[in-house]
Amino acid sequence: xxxxxxxxxxxxxxxxxxxxxxxxxxxxxxxxxxxxxxxxxxxxxxxxxxxxxxxxxxxxxxxxxxxxxx
Length: 70
Prior knowledge:
The protein is of the alpha+beta class. It is 14% helix and 29% strand. The protein has a 4-stranded antiparallel beta sheet, with no helix packed on it. The relative contact order is 0.30.
């Protein structure tokens, strides 16, 4: 099953990577690391703002994982 959840915010982790905060209260890294992961929108403020509300698949929801904390 693929449970999708909207992005409601962002923060950087201790390694300075961007983390999406999802409406389901799980966290998910959103790295731009070509050629493996192409998410150029994550590197600019406007790009991140444009993706607020965009749904990402949440494997943690599929596993009934507890909520994440920041």
